[in-house]
Amino acid sequence: MPWVQKYKPKKLEDIVGNRDVALAFGRWLKDRLAGKNVKPAALLHGPPGVGKTLSVEIAAQQFNLELVELNASDVRTKEAIERVAGGAALQASLFGYSGKLIFLDEIDGITSEDRGGIPAVVELVKYSRFPVVMTANDPWDPSFKELRNLCEMFKYDRIRSTSIVAYLRQICRMEGIIPDDEALKVIAEHAEGDVRAALNDLQMVAQGAKKLTKEMVMGLYYRTQQQNAFEVLRRLFSAKTAVTAKMALEGSLVDFDTLIKWINENIPYQYEDVEELAAAYDALSKADVYYARVKRSQNWDLFKYVIDFATAGVALAKKRPFKFVKYQFPKDILMLSATKEERGVKNEILSKIKEKCHISKRRAIIEYLPYLQIIFSENPEMGHKVAKELKLSKEAIEYLSGRAA
Amino acid sequence: MSAEAEIMWTEKYRPKTLDEIVNQEDVVRRLKKFVEEKTMPHCLFAGPPGTGKTTAALCLARDLFKENFAQNYLELNASDERGIDVIRTTVKEFARTIPLGEVPFKILVLDEADNMTADAQQALRRTMERYTQTCRFILVCNYASKIIEPIQSRCALFRFSPLKPEDIAARIKYIAEKEGVTVTDDGIDALLYVGGGDLRRIINLLQAAAALGGVVDGKTVYRISGRVSPSELKKMLDMALRGQFIEARENLRQLMFNYGLSGVDVVRQIHREIFALPVPEDIKLQLADLVGEAEYRIVEGSNDEIQLNSLLAKMAFLGKKIGYAK
Asked: Which residues of chain B are within 8 Å of residue A374 when distances are taken between CB atoms?
């Protein structure tokens, strides 16, 4: 059983992260059912996985309403609207409910695929005897304007990753798993505010385990990312024309910044000839120059040139036929996480030097660190005195003593 | 074994007052005037590393503020403070309270100011103007030309010249005597040669050489200096020119991730090395062109790893054209 089902909250106040807005929605529904003068419909909006649909489901249960889920094509005609939204109360009571809750999930889907859809929904809202509730990721599309006026708006936010971590820890406790804090943090950050995605990821990697480590989590993300990235790289490097190279990015699950790292890592494996190698890197470095301009000026119109050089530029560097090679995971990503602890210690040392020796941390790397390493490894007595003055931690002393040996 | 604390010699022998500074006579004379009159403009201290810029600022502030030094003096470093906003907030915090004592202003030193972008400098200029009543700025940099014109024109410029070899030698002897270390004449020559005019580097070299325990002679100094410059760098350039790109890139990653150098630092170190490479003279200039382009791009905000990889790949191609490996 999916954990999102298993651990589904029963009450609005149990919704992770968006408790207040969920409760506000509950109050609106109560007023609406009591016939108070409130807007006839509600629009719950926000990014995926933050509890919008869940709020609707819980509220329906709490108020004993039959949840009638529709899509726009169900309500195209007056008769259809009459059928679903105007039906007799008698009919509803047959099922033991005290009423209906009409629910249209993800209405932003309607605008693109269905021209007559929105006016039909507006009609539905105006006509319906029952409360109408909708969800949307982005409610600010101009075509929703009339609809928005009829709706009470409820804004759901991304869940803060500290809240997600706390929630995941709770789930682990119930599943009898001992989690590593770092591991939960990685899942939470990866989920980018989507608590449902976080819970799914947790289940995928931790179900049945006794302990959850950071390595297990990283393994999960590497694997999914890797398969997709291999595919994109193969399409890119094998492209014979600029256009096919540019199309290689379609369907990429990997975000662009990471993809650049993949390309950067694998150019030398694909291009063994130094002329091809130089041409490919020249193109990638040009893409990077454009990318820097985009970020600096925030002029995203320039982004197309980044794509041109990162794809077509790199692909057209080849002089001989494409051949299959084994692609590698970007090593700098691995190195960054592997050396994280060491960098922490080093940063401590540099901060202390900065404080005492009137120099930036950046320059202290060259101007002080190597000398300290010699002093600590060659002359522990002098080293210890310096350590005392700089107030260095034990880890810092070990680092300085070990490296230069 | 005694367990008393020992500071780095660069700090232990840093002059405490303007009187103790033996070099930069011209600069010191002008700064002493500020102390006498208890007034000063914003200042720009420019000169090579290790010539006493930060020391002069410290001494000036100590002489001016005396016992109120700590409350009235603040040192920031443009290389470390993340962005102009941090600097602005810190300055605001520091400058909004009234200075303590009889001097009507505080002193804020912004070190390595030439590492700020032009935009950040514009913002700094406005900040300087806003707090000019209560706070004087001393901007410290290697090159005055990297400071934008409007700031330069608001500052009194102080040029720090490279220290004279005989003054450095005297300082080495003084420290050695105080520390009970024997330094031979060829040891001093080696320190002068390796350290250039950079007194900080020379004192660090001296302390590290003294840590070895014996007499500090030429051999010890060169041994130390070999150990403090990353050997991966030379290896990296050699590998690249031989066309062994993947190995060269591995060395680059060692430098950046393990050694902790920034991309700009790597590219500047490369520039120092290229003229010593065993390649034809005209190729050295072609290399300088490639290195220069990479440095420019990185400084302008490009990704250092990609730009440096691109540089190494181009070096590999160049190495093949000139038959470097043979």
From this structure: 208, 211-212, 224, 227-228
